[in-house]
Design a protein that fits this description.
- The protein has helices at residues 7-14, 18-25, 29-36, 45-55, 59-62, and strands spanning 3-5, 63-65.
- By secondary structure, it is mainly alpha-helical.
- The longest helix is centred in the C-terminal third of the chain and has 11 residues, at 45-55.
- The protein has a two-stranded antiparallel sheet.
- Helix 2 (18-25) crosses helix 3.
Length: 68
Amino acid sequence: MPIVVRIDLELAKRKMSVGEFAERVGLTPANVAVLKNGRAKAVRFSTLEAMCRVLDCQPGDLLEWVDD
């Protein structure tokens, strides 16, 4: 899939653990792992909004299109 989720980079910038991020966003750590590993087929806007709120970033900071 040419859409890459860059949660790892944003978490590292903020020195935030996956567990803390998952709790603050309202996701399970397993679902965060699905996003991080590029196995997610879709992301709800409400989830994207929560991720941006917690990380204080824009959607473009989390999602990147990469040509195959």
